[in-house]
């Protein structure tokens, strides 16, 4: 007898087994295998990507709710929209009162606490690291920024110092360039998923230096006479039992000119963002569900058609002594290999988009978007892969029921 | 007591076996009250026109379809009362079945197709009957080999010996789609013999074969019977009939001596 050799002439010292049969079946039907893996991969991309997107948006919303500690923002005439954008996930802006308003506003009925903030936008030009929102706050009265800062930064923000949001690029030497001047960054905050990530926080006393710096690079952000007393917004916490809208109304009654003031209700911002988020999450869920229904139908069609194609193969296995359990094992292992390959590839593919472009996604959606933590992500990966495996195995087992129905003999005599 | 003891002596006892089908609203017996007894070493041929129940009969003997009435006993055990695992084990280790149609697995090479039945049950490889044992003894595995040489797998060796005996060893690495009908038939026979069955059932084993191949296959079947394997063959081939101990005729489901 000649030497036993494989197709390529190499000596064969191992043999086929029922356990290795599924892999062999998949290997010998590359087109069918790749098509199945692609379908499963699409399911996995949709489930993992869609779910992660929804989770991140939900996180962003919660974070935004936590950060917006004021009930009412009073802003200059025609600045309400800019202020809303600043709170949600919009672009940086500069606006301020030209007349002293804060102390007058504070006298209104229902105001429990108030603080002033100054908003300046840096430039997307050579003078600045990037276009950022500069927020000047008053540490002596602040009740919005300070509690959050102190939970992240243990210390006092001194004049000339900066605390940077999570999305701000800080130089390796711990500074940032704004209006041609280098400012020391004393802390960088954790991500919130809101526009605050793209903001820097300074003591209000630093505002004049910042304005002067802007004047040095030929773009004075506000006239010299306002730099020390500029106020962009008065943030109000209303007294218990008062509605922010009622307080706003009482403010307008203080002076006829106050009717033109802008009133922003951070709670309202949250509700409108919540509504947008709700519809986006709803559409995402519908999209994922439709894709899954289609994917499951495709899987069922592919499995059922392959069962028809493979009837003879399984009848043949039965005749040579394979039990029904062995056939189920072959089908299940094939489905497991396909679903794991597709599931893992899908998660990896979705990750390639979701993680590196996280901040871009947030900006494009114009909604608070906060990346979920590693544990949640790992959990989502496990759930996505598990779901694809369960669906794939389920579809294959349904097909198997059909396969087990006709007797082997009948199948093999078809067409004879 | 007498009946039980007599039946246990025979390898195969078919007792009053009937299979009824319904065609266009009418019942008909594809197999009608068939009795058959075979012992180890018997070589029985069944002849008859197409559609007269030959394939239905042998499929019932292998437990592939259930009879309407009557029993099939293999080695004293009633096939119809076996659970799936016992019946599968019977098909795998005691009965070798060569179907009329092509039943090779298209994703496996010829060699793997032949080896596969020996891997289904843990004890299958060791359960080979006399025919397979004689095939293995023809291998070269025991020859002195250098220490670093790869030891060929015993199952591959046995499969190669069978393929050699059937004249298709050179096709071991080929896939079924690369084979002719006759080559596939010979590989199917090798596969049926892999576990050394005590009862070989062959449905038209020479159907696609030329005269030379027919002789190879029939000499092999005759040799198996001589070595103690019971061979039950369905055939239309008058040339093949001469190799059998005797022939039975199947006519309208009834089995009789011609």
From TrEMBL, chain B:
A Pfam short name: ABC_tran
InterPro entries in the record: AAA+_ATPase (IPR003593), ABC_transporter-like_ATP-bd (IPR003439), ABC_transporter-like_CS (IPR017871), ABC_transpr_LolD-like (IPR015854), MacB-like_ATP-bd (IPR017911), P-loop_NTPase (IPR027417)
Stretch list, region Disordered: 129-149
Keyword rRNA processing: no
Domain ABC transporter per the UniProt entry, residue ranges: 12-258
EC number: 3.6.3.28
Molecular-function annotations in GO: ATP binding; ATP hydrolysis activity; transmembrane transporter activity
Gene3D superfamilies linked to this entry: P-loop containing nucleotide triphosphate hydrolases (3.40.50.300)
GO cellular component assignments: plasma membrane
UniProt key word Transport: yes
Key words, A-Z: ATP-binding, Hydrolase, Nucleotide-binding, Transport
Protein name in UniProt: ATP-binding protein of ABC transporter system
Species assigned in the record: Bifidobacterium merycicum
